[in-house]
Amino acid sequence: MKSPTIQTLIISVFLFTIQTSLASPPTLGSVFTQCIIGLKPSNPCSPIQNFTYTPQNPKFLIILNNYVRNLRYFNNTTRKPIAIVAAADVTHIQATITCAKKLSLQLRIRSGGHDYDGLSYLSTVDFVVLDMFNLRSIEFGRKLDTAWVQSGATLGEIYYGVANKSNDLRGFPAGICPGLGAGGHFSDAKIVDAKGRVLDRTSMGEDLFWALRGGGAASFCVVLAWKIKLVPVPEKVTVFNVEAVGKRGGVNTKELVVKWQEIADKIDNSLFIRLTLSTSNKTVKASFMGMFLGDSSRLLEIMTKEFPELGLNKTECIEMKWIESVLFWLSIPPGTAPTSVMLNRIPQKQIYLKRKSDYVQKPISRTGLDAIFKVLLENENVTMAWNPYGGRMSEIPSTETAFPHRAGNKFKIQYAANWFVPGEEVAKECMSQTERVFEAMTPYVSKNPREAFLNYRDVDIGTSLNSTYEEGKVYGVKYFKNNFERLVSVKSRVDPDNFFRYEQSIPVPSSH
Ligand SMILES: Cc1cc2nc3c(=O)[nH]c(=O)nc-3n(C[C@H](O)[C@H](O)[C@H](O)COP(=O)(O)OP(=O)(O)OC[C@H]3O[C@@H](n4cnc5c(N)ncnc54)[C@H](O)[C@@H]3O)c2cc1C
Hints:
The protein has helices at 6-22, 28-38, 60-66, 90-102, 155-165, 201-204, 206-212, 253-263, 296-306, 322-329, 366-378, 391-395, 424-440, 469-480, 483-494; strands spanning 52-53, 83-86, 106-110, 127-131, 138-140, 146-150, 170-171, 186-192, 198-199, 222-229, 231-232, 237-245, 247-248, 251-252, 271-280, 283-292, 318-320, 352-360, 382-388, 411-419. The chain has 512 residues and is an alpha+beta fold. The protein has 4 domains: 28-131, Uridine Diphospho-n-acetylenolpyruvylglucosamine Reductase, domain 2 (2-Layer Sandwich); 138-232, Uridine Diphospho-n-acetylenolpyruvylglucosamine Reductase, domain 3, CATH 3.30.465; 237-444, 3-Layer(aba) Sandwich (Vanillyl-alcohol Oxidase, Chain A, domain 3); 465-479 and 486-512, no CATH class. The radius of gyration is 26 Å and the shape is globular. It binds flavin-adenine dinucleotide. Flavin-adenine dinucleotide binds next to strand 3 and strand 10. One of its GO terms (molecular function) is oxidoreductase activity. This is FAD-binding PCMH-type domain-containing protein. Residues 1-23 form the signal peptide. It holds the Pfam family BBE.
């Protein structure tokens, strides 16, 4: 081979210099990627760059949108992360924390992506999404009374796995939607803290473990896995869903709602009856959806004694396995789908939505119900789900975990507006209808503070733009009541530099 002449060398150097000077500056995404690749030791079996997606990667939008569960944020206008790390092991989480800190990027942690206001994948400043969907293993204890569940496992995967493993004799009580990220009855946790250390319950300390249960983990750390307690379930449970449009069996809807308020939080601990109020043909519809941990004969005995006005009859009661009841709560008619549908991670139908929440401590009077029915008829896109409290919920002291809404609450309200078509006008109308119903409910719900449920994320109750204590307190006392100050003190111990911050995170005290 001929060796290059001095002229060709000079020309090459000249061209290289021009090329480099014309090349655009590296993007923040590529600087972040270089940072995480550069960290040692990286895992040679699963190199982090194979799990990192910047906007230049053709899969970036697919990965981002795969776990967006509110179409309001499925668009070109919301700010996108500079990178997504779909962590496949703990070193990926540690590298993400280190480099996000180094480059002053905010971190958003996402498991199932069901945050109603999208706070696990949105930000107004440069940010990285740490996506946990690859970390989804479930390992059962020998006696099948516990399981270690990685944070990216969905509730459907947990329910299905628990029922299969235990021959339908164990269950795990949590949310209805099987696509949600894991959560619930925790007896231990593995986390990665702001310094990148992997800690368990003993090494993190009881105060942080206390905060994680109901205080919103994203303010403190990345949760790698939860150890959950499994509970025995009977071979058969009984479910029902009956409706009153105007009246049912001669009793009008309002009287049924009055009676439901009297009994729902006090009835047998094995029976849960959710009341949903909506409208149908200019009439208020009340749906009573229930589940009883036992057979239909015993359920009917209880209902005849405690709630005869509903007139529940044998043909309306359906006995099934606990695992099948998961589909019933999703309104899938019994026998029409295999239980394995709860393993689907991508929902069949995506929706635009807005949610808000409230707590009710005193029964709402008949006059109050008249006013509420009127406002629902004027705002037909809004439904209200009234979920009874009482039972085990009120036996646990409000300071035992960071979740504070215990004794004294009769029920929790979820306000829901769903819509299916894009466009600002329809979105604006549905959002203002929700706001109007929420406003009209003011006289009947908790006050000072007007309490809210963290899982029903609602940015209207306050957000922190400058990460100050004063801003954080506005939404903090609504979500956490008297536990807020203790959460602030845990936060200042475990994350004094406020690395784990987002629009509704726990603030550090002003002096920090
Ligand atoms: C269709 C739908 C149905 C729902 N049904 C119910 C229901 O039946 N009952 C109920 O109680 N709620 C329900 N919710 C609300 C839901 O429980 C909450 O939004 C819950 O936080 C979702 O968890 P996720 O992991 O899917 O969400 P994500 O959006 O991934 O996360 C929610 C919050 O948790 C943080 N987070 C996620 N993973 C981690 C982690 N590993 N470490 C630290 N922080 C983390 C996020 O940063 C964010 O702040 C529903 C929501 C939707 C959209």
